[in-house]
Design a protein that fits this description.
This protein is an alpha+beta fold and 110 residues long. The protein has helices at 27-39, 71-80, 105-109; strands spanning 2-11, 14-23, 47-49, 53-55, 60-69, 84-91, 94-99. The protein contains three helices and seven strands, in the order ββαβββαββα. The chain has a seven-stranded mixed sheet with strand order 3-4-5-1-2-6-7.
Length: 110
Protein backbone atom coordinates (compact mmCIF):
# COMPACT_ATOMS: atom_id res chain seq x y z
CA UNK A 1 0.00 0.00 0.00
CA UNK A 2 1.13 3.57 -0.66
CA UNK A 3 0.67 6.84 1.20
CA UNK A 4 1.61 10.45 0.60
CA UNK A 5 3.44 11.73 3.70
CA UNK A 6 3.76 15.48 4.17
CA UNK A 7 6.19 17.33 6.43
CA UNK A 8 6.87 20.99 7.17
CA UNK A 9 10.54 21.87 7.68
CA UNK A 10 11.41 25.13 9.44
CA UNK A 11 14.93 26.54 9.41
CA UNK A 12 15.31 30.02 10.93
CA UNK A 13 12.70 32.15 9.12
CA UNK A 14 12.17 29.74 6.20
CA UNK A 15 9.41 27.13 6.09
CA UNK A 16 8.96 24.58 3.31
CA UNK A 17 6.68 21.61 2.79
CA UNK A 18 8.18 18.34 1.65
CA UNK A 19 6.30 15.26 0.47
CA UNK A 20 7.30 11.62 0.12
CA UNK A 21 5.59 8.49 -1.13
CA UNK A 22 5.66 5.83 1.57
CA UNK A 23 5.19 2.14 0.76
CA UNK A 24 4.34 -0.17 3.67
CA UNK A 25 2.19 -3.20 4.45
CA UNK A 26 -0.15 -1.24 6.75
CA UNK A 27 -1.07 2.28 7.75
CA UNK A 28 0.40 1.67 11.22
CA UNK A 29 3.75 0.67 9.71
CA UNK A 30 3.68 3.67 7.36
CA UNK A 31 3.04 5.97 10.32
CA UNK A 32 5.86 4.37 12.33
CA UNK A 33 8.15 4.92 9.35
CA UNK A 34 7.11 8.56 9.01
CA UNK A 35 7.73 9.12 12.73
CA UNK A 36 11.18 7.52 12.43
CA UNK A 37 11.91 9.76 9.43
CA UNK A 38 10.94 12.83 11.47
CA UNK A 39 12.99 11.91 14.51
CA UNK A 40 16.09 11.22 12.39
CA UNK A 41 15.76 14.16 9.94
CA UNK A 42 18.97 15.62 11.35
CA UNK A 43 21.45 13.99 13.73
CA UNK A 44 20.90 15.57 17.13
CA UNK A 45 17.24 15.36 18.18
CA UNK A 46 16.59 17.83 20.99
CA UNK A 47 12.87 17.28 21.57
CA UNK A 48 9.94 15.24 20.25
CA UNK A 49 6.40 16.55 20.70
CA UNK A 50 3.41 14.19 20.41
CA UNK A 51 5.15 11.96 17.86
CA UNK A 52 4.63 14.51 15.09
CA UNK A 53 7.05 17.38 15.74
CA UNK A 54 10.81 17.16 16.21
CA UNK A 55 13.20 19.93 17.24
CA UNK A 56 16.86 19.91 16.27
CA UNK A 57 19.67 22.49 16.51
CA UNK A 58 19.23 23.02 12.73
CA UNK A 59 15.47 23.59 12.87
CA UNK A 60 12.12 21.88 13.32
CA UNK A 61 10.30 19.15 11.39
CA UNK A 62 6.55 18.54 11.66
CA UNK A 63 4.58 15.69 10.13
CA UNK A 64 1.11 16.86 9.17
CA UNK A 65 -0.53 14.24 6.98
CA UNK A 66 -0.47 10.68 5.76
CA UNK A 67 -2.90 10.23 2.88
CA UNK A 68 -3.65 6.80 1.36
CA UNK A 69 -3.05 6.64 -2.39
CA UNK A 70 -4.87 4.52 -4.96
CA UNK A 71 -2.63 2.66 -7.40
CA UNK A 72 -3.43 5.10 -10.22
CA UNK A 73 -2.56 8.09 -7.99
CA UNK A 74 0.74 6.46 -7.03
CA UNK A 75 1.63 5.83 -10.69
CA UNK A 76 0.81 9.43 -11.65
CA UNK A 77 2.92 10.87 -8.82
CA UNK A 78 5.83 8.54 -9.56
CA UNK A 79 5.68 9.38 -13.28
CA UNK A 80 6.11 13.07 -12.40
CA UNK A 81 9.52 12.12 -10.93
CA UNK A 82 9.71 14.79 -8.23
CA UNK A 83 8.77 12.77 -5.14
CA UNK A 84 11.03 10.30 -3.37
CA UNK A 85 9.59 6.88 -2.61
CA UNK A 86 10.51 5.22 0.70
CA UNK A 87 9.70 1.62 1.61
CA UNK A 88 9.10 0.86 5.29
CA UNK A 89 9.63 -2.62 6.73
CA UNK A 90 10.23 -3.85 10.27
CA UNK A 91 13.40 -5.47 11.51
CA UNK A 92 13.42 -6.47 15.19
CA UNK A 93 10.69 -3.95 16.10
CA UNK A 94 12.53 -1.05 14.46
CA UNK A 95 11.22 0.48 11.22
CA UNK A 96 13.69 0.11 8.35
CA UNK A 97 13.33 2.82 5.71
CA UNK A 98 14.93 2.41 2.28
CA UNK A 99 14.41 3.97 -1.11
CA UNK A 100 13.74 1.87 -4.20
CA UNK A 101 17.49 1.49 -4.75
CA UNK A 102 18.15 0.09 -1.26
CA UNK A 103 19.66 3.26 0.19
CA UNK A 104 18.77 3.69 3.86
CA UNK A 105 17.01 6.84 5.10
CA UNK A 106 19.66 7.48 7.76
CA UNK A 107 22.44 7.36 5.15
CA UNK A 108 20.46 9.62 2.83
CA UNK A 109 19.79 12.26 5.50
CA UNK A 110 23.38 12.44 6.85
Amino acid sequence: MNWLASFTVRVTETEIDTHHIITADSEQLAERGVQEMGRTWWEMLEEEVDGCCWRFPEGEVSYFSLVPLADVETRILLDLKFLDRWCVTVSQETPQICDVYGCHWNDFRR
